[in-house]
Amino acid sequence: MTLTITDSVGERLDSYLAGRLPALSRSKIQSLIKAGHIQLNGNRVKARTSMKSGDTITVDIPEEAHTELIAQDIPLSVLHEDDDLIVINKAHGMVVHPAAGNPDGTLVNALLHHCAGQLAIDEDETRPGIVHRLDKDTSGCIVAAKTKPALTGLVNQFADRSTAKLYLAVAQSPPKETHQTVFNNIARHPVHRQRMDVCNPGSGKPAITDLHLLHTEPDGTSLILCALHTGRTHQIRVHNRYLGHPLLGDPIYAKPARQVVSVPRLMLHAWRLGIAHPVTGEWIQNEAPIPEEFHPWTDQVTERLTQICAIRDSKEFDALW
Predict the structure, then answer these.
(1) What is the pLDDT averaged over residues 226-254?
(2) Global confidence as pTM
């Protein structure tokens, strides 16, 4: 496809194309520009490039490889299951859904086998049942929908922040404050696209995390309880790095030379997930067993963790600190 500019002089390239190629999202257009599939006057340019009269835009949209979803007999640790939903203790190292570089061996492939294909599907057919995600390197609680009403109800709960999400994290150094709330905006790093970063309030998306220090070892490594109020990509990892204490074993946000303890994985675990059953309304509190790698820290605060497990409302939780 070739377009010649006769109007919209001075407009950004991506903005111009977004108005003329409605089938493509602006982010998709930007990725095509970055990959060189959209060029200006035969040259690779940036999405923000301003256009001049007479400029020629060439658009070459590659065919996307179709990922066929297959059911795979992969062992799952099931925390709760009924006719409408299933809660899994996702293993560290497991990708949630198929994508480029991970066509199979994912949680979705395992769920398709376990649930005999009974997973709810919305607009994105490549992610049946999925209503939220965990990073590949994060273990712990994740819920999937088996029916359409469950899918709709769960999506709404995550959107209106009525779920209760508690994570255990081990940082390479102690926080400066015992209890604090981080509230800022997070966006993808403009250069290092695998990373997210704190950004100006006018960009990105709001991200809110409560952090509570549970225990600090003599070497400074610290166990932190993180309560998520939003669910941005890498949110806990970004916020801990922002505060100056990145997580142990983090391959993106921590520098290996500063890791005082050698660990075999990212030290982040989705410990507890509370949801209202989207069909019955019953509150379901799920808890993923704490991985062995966390025990040197969690064994020091077993009484406090037991107290947290017994909590039933936010007032009781606040009274602990």
Answers:
(1) 96
(2) 0.79
Q: Which of 25, 309, 280, 288 is nearest to 134 (CA)?
A: 288
Catalogue the active-site residues: 135
Q: Taking the CA atoms of 275, 279, 283 and 288 in sequence, report the sign of the dihedral they define.
A: negative
CATH 3.30.2350.10 fits 78-159, yes or no: yes
> Which pLDDT value is given to residue 292?
98
Fold adopted by 164-319: Pseudouridine synthase (3.30.2350)
Is the torsion defined by CA of 7, 8, 13, 19 positive or negative? negative
50, amino acid identity: S
Q: How far apart are CA 298 and CA 302, in angstroms?
A: 6
Using the structure block, give the residue that is written with the tokens 């059911």: 71
Mutual orientation of helices 26-34 and 13-20 as an angle, nearest 10°? Answer: 130
Distance from C-alpha of 79 to C-alpha of 224, rounded to nearest angstrom: 23
Instruction: Assess contact for 145 and 157: CB atoms under 8 A.
Output: no
What is the identity of the amino acid at 169? A
List, in order, residues 6 or more apart from 169 with CB less than 8 Å away. Answer: 223, 224, 225, 226, 236, 240, 247, 267, 268, 269
Q: What three-state secondary structure class fits 247?
A: strand
